[in-house]
Specification:
- The protein has 719 residues and is α/β, with parallel strands linked by helices.
- The protein folds into 4 domains: 258 residues, 2-enoyl-CoA Hydratase, Chain A, domain 1, CATH 3.90.226; 178 residues, Rossmann fold (3-Layer(aba) Sandwich); 106 residues, N-(1-d-carboxylethyl)-l-norvaline Dehydrogenase, domain 2 (Orthogonal Bundle), CATH 1.10.1040.10; 102 residues, N-(1-d-carboxylethyl)-l-norvaline Dehydrogenase, domain 2, CATH 1.10.1040.10.
- Helices cover 47% and strands 12% of the residues.
- It has 28 helices and 19 strands.
- Helix 12 packs across helix 13 and helix 17 runs antiparallel to helix 23.
- The structure holds ligand LOW37U6P.
- Ligand LOW37U6P binds next to strand 5, helix 10 and helix 11.
- Pathway: Lipid metabolism; fatty acid beta-oxidation.
- InterPro entries: 3-OHacyl-CoA_DH_CS, 3-OHacyl-CoA_DH_NAD-bd, 3HC_DH_C, 6-PGluconate_DH-like_C_sf, ClpP/crotonase-like_dom_sf, Enoyl-CoA_hyd/isom_CS, Enoyl-CoA_hydra/iso, NAD(P)-bd_dom_sf.
- It catalyses: (3E)-hexenoyl-CoA = (2E)-hexenoyl-CoA; (3S)-hydroxydecanoyl-CoA = (2E)-decenoyl-CoA + H2O; (3E)-decenoyl-CoA = (2E)-decenoyl-CoA; (2S,3S)-3-hydroxy-2-methylbutanoyl-CoA = (2E)-2-methylbut-2-enoyl-CoA + H2O.
Amino acid sequence: MALFSRVSGSVGLITLQNPPVNALSAAVRQGIVDSVKRALSDPEVKSVVICGENGVFCGGADIKEFGGNMSGPPLIPMIHAIEAANKPVVAAIEGSALGGGLELALGCHYRIAHSKARLGLPEVSLGLLPAAGGTQRLPRLIGVPAALDLITTGRHITAAEALQLGIVDQVTKQSTVNAAVNFALNVAEKPLDARRISTFPCPHSSDLDALFEEAMQKVQKSARGAIAPVACVQAVRAAATQPYNQGMEREKELMATLFTSGQARALQYCFFAQRAVGKWRMPNGACWDTSKPRPVHKVAVIGLGTMGRGILVALAQTGLSVVAVETQEMQLMEAKQAVSGMLERGAKRRGVVPTLHNITYSQNIKSVAEVDLVIEAVFEDMALKEKVFQQLSAVCKPGTFLCTNTSALDIDHLASQTGNPELVVGMHFFAPAHVMKLLEVVYGPRSSPQAVATAMHLGKKMGKIGVAVGNCRGFVGNRMLKPYIEQAFFLLEEGGTPEKIDQALEEFGFPMGVFKMSDLSGLDIGWRVRKGDGLAESSAASQQSPRIRDGRRYSPLGDLLCEQGRFGQKTGHGWYQYDKPGSQLARSDPWLHSFLEGYRAQHGLVARRIDQQEVLERCLYVLINEGFRILEDGIASGPEDIDIIYVFGYGWPRHRGGPMFYAGMVGLAKVLERLEHYHQAHPDVPYLQPCSLLRRLVASGSPPVNTWKEVIKKVRSQL
Ligand SMILES: CCCCCC/C=C/CC(=O)SCCNC(=O)CCNC(=O)[C@H](O)C(C)(C)COP(=O)(O)OP(=O)(O)OC[C@H]1O[C@@H](n2cnc3c(N)ncnc32)[C@H](O)[C@@H]1OP(=O)(O)O
């Protein structure tokens, strides 16, 4: 809806009313159309102000409407009518003016923004383009390079930047509506011809072809198969090269393709999934709206290796007071220097003062006695972590939450080392911890809802997307990664190469394939785990066949590389070779290829041609299958949790929505059929055996992903 009123005698005030972000639903559009008509036909009204209720101008089109039949007045004629009005219309921008919200403002003759407002055209992140004239008006207003930047990245900008670019006419720190009304009174009689952006010529640079060529190359490189950024460039090109009306036609044509695309559906699903994971629920029914976090003022980080340093930086940037403990003097000195550098660089980038003074460094664990929450980030070794938790339990004040940054270890076991297991949760950060957005908050059977709520709240403060998950080996992300990596090893045995397998995964949209990722994180990490599990025995010591463990197929390839000291990037050799230890550019390694040939010959394996489809089906469907098992086990409360973990922590291409959404797009019946096929061919690989939840979903007609929770509830209630 939109409310019309007359203020200051002659200003028609139109207030958008659709909490929480005044999205342009059908009712809001109807309200705007009616109010504009009323303002223009009322002789007492000399000028108009459009604002939003509750300090938010407008969060854009109502994304929830995209899935169904769109009704109500369309946006484009509505905005044209505003621009064509013979009375000045001023947008009063508070909070956000995003997407269709900014396009509405661009249709107004003037824009006044509050200093704290954020503006942007984020449609690209929803798989769309600004199709209510945004791609045609913005370049005419601020020039092609700046418009390309905003439209292809979708980034939100501050009011100050909007003023500098010429998007807004004035920025105020006072009441934006009052400022806009005063402004509207002043411009009431002014001519409007020079204020209609659609009539502006598009400012031209000397070499348009080169400019667009460069822009296209840039988006194609970063988009990894996403189609919206490419369409955005094409639409802006139309603004630069064609008259406004033709440009609008091109915008409409490009939008029509995007609007019904699977990518747009996937990205819009991600938008809502990202918000859904904040509404966490534990199997015992405790959830986000009944469990309140406890205030946290002082935090400690224990262990200042790579992960600890990243966590420390992310914490210090929140403004919290942090005690950083590292018992090794040398490591402490190095960490101090590294953390200061990271904080200074981060502050410079964000144009703020570095928060170095928030941190107190210590070598003594007793200095955490007064903190409200501890994040332990020592080496991934259970015995070491046990000892730290015993010490923490003894030195911390009563009620201190004890969190462990582990990627796989048993949270409940660590909790059992303390006097108050209900205060213990896992906080699984992803490297680099000050950059990566994902945080798995892991609750054990004894973790209290308040501990989960507090860790989730702290994560949010640190700028993370927290996903609450249950306690099992590898939690959600790494548990699903295991069968994925295993399949990649098997594909190598059967004739694949790291290059071909990585290429298939990168063409699918991952930033790097499984072998490059493995080289980056270090082959020795998995080797240590496999040794701990008694899997990576050298064949001489082993009683069993080198390719079988407990009756299951096993590939010792990763172990054999580690035995050669090939740990990946850090040693200069892994699945690829690197110019020197620490280099990042992976090059094909002839040694590896002859090693694979020798290995196959030794084990009587005949190499066959493996195509891209098989790589994707085997690696991705097996990972998805484990995702279904995780849902069945109640480790994740819904498919959204898994998808957000994969998109934000494991490089799953966002325009494919995450593994569980992708399974729905492919068709659950097809995923099931291919898993059955591969399991038949490899009966000694249990991960390929389709999970019963997948079978149940297929049997119940493959319902859409947003209804799976209901099916899962039924399945679980029958167990
Ligand atoms: C052929 C068709 C032609 C159509 C032509 C017109 C096309 C226009 C394209 C668009 O305008 S697409 C939309 C562009 N806008 C956005 O992408 C903005 C999305 N929203 C945000 O970025 C944020 O929500 C915010 C506005 C910055 C506010 O952030 P905040 O952290 O304060 O709140 P949230 O938790 O994110 O959101 C609160 C609540 O509101 C829901 N919501 C937000 N924006 C929209 C929206 N545009 N449509 C529908 N719903 C929206 C969000 O889902 C949350 O809901 P919940 O139920 O409370 O979780």
